[in-house]
Amino acid sequence: MKSNILLALAAIAPVATVTGKSEKPNILVIVCEDISPYLHCYGDPIAVSPHIDRLADRGIRHTNMFTTVGVSAPSRYALITGRYPSEDGANYMRVTTFNPTFEVISPPGVKCYTEYLREAGYYCTNNSKTDYQFVPPLAAWDENSKNAHWKNAPDNQPFFSIFNINTTHESQLWVNNNKPLEIDPQKVPLPPYYPDDPEIRHGMAVMYSNIARMDREVQEFLDELADSPRKDNTIIIFYSDNGGPILRGKREIMDSGSRVPFIIAFPDGWKAGTVNDELNMFIDIPATILSLAGVKIPSNMQGQAMYGQQKAKPRKFVFGATDRFDEQIEKRASIRDERFLYIRNYMPEQSVYRPNAYRRQIPMMLKMEEMRDHGLLDSIQMLWFTAPAPVEALYDCKEDPCQIHNLAENPQYTAKLKQMRAAFQKEWIDKYNKNWVSHEESYFIKRARPDGLQPVTDNPVAVITKDGYFVIKNPKTAVTVSYSVGEAKMKIYTKPVKLNKGDSITYIAGRIGYKNSERITIKYKES
Are residues 225 and 348 in the same domain? Predict the structure, then answer.
């Protein structure tokens, strides 16, 4: 009976510990890079991932978690704001390479979700990748460095802590190409869009070997927590920042680039070893974390909570969009329900494959191009390279998990095509992406830099009252004010701060995409 009560509490409260005491949970997030669900617990027969598999055994394994695009910076914008990057002009990968002053400016009032956690009393650390399409505001983190760690959190504060693992990043396919393999290339499964070639098999084995190394790093973070008394009240979350890293994976809005592993484990073992098949997106992760922490989800956050007191109804659709990938430009968008994926191509004159210089450092990419040029690829393997590309595509993801067979012109699927096309227009374009459809990248750059310069946050107007309270007189929801008294660490201003005679207080304001205001220091002198 007591066990059933605890499970019910866990479903609705921020977290219910094994003692039955409900309190704000600690939250540990482990993020790897650039992998689709190439893990044994997701049914991959050759993946070596025993540590992540054990985490899945003690948690909930999500099978339908999708990013908005299979590449890091736009994905990480969604992960830190809970918003669609295409609507906010954040969907252009490495736009800063060509416009060095550019940073995305989010709509007024949009903040990093960690700002809300800090306001609620959380100690927030990030170790240490950001890549959000903007420099993180000062208020986003208590610690943001290679040394950032939840162990630095005061004992009386709950922590929220992210650790990023680079081992499976796309770049490691060439960096580790000549290292000893942990997977036999002859045993790797090849999707039908790859030729059976020794170099292709070797590249796949490098990817699986990187995953095995990453799996061991995950366990190091779990061991650190296991040795701490904080383990009894810590939620653990694991996911990849986008799909990939292999060809026709990363940068895609097909499942091969957008579908990622996501595991969440509660400290009391709630729903341990179960599977969640509901459709979810990266924009739902910030909303879920706020819900679990007992923090109200802001109205401008487009994601919805998967757990906690603010849990929403399951999604009917998930969405995606592609734009710039370094020096290459494309424009496609997608909508997916539980079974079917619809893709609309706005640049069908070119092939879906783009000769991205960064990706062309992967040995197996050069091999694919060589085989293409010598006519050694079959019709399925040539689909990625063929121009013009279809304006519309419809795939049955259940019967065709590799999304090879385009059903858009199949009369048997005319009704489904019309249904997905209508939902795409109503639920994705009309609701979130009117500007994205009608404008190019230059529109969003100009929107962020109307005069070519980065805007600066206005200085807050502050006073110290006669009875010693520091007060911000013009608080604005669009900005966050950080302050410190003496040599203390910066905190977020949420209410008047009581000072002692002789105290000096330093304060500064910031918002996403803006330069910080001036750093101002004033001293309390009793009159």
Answer: no
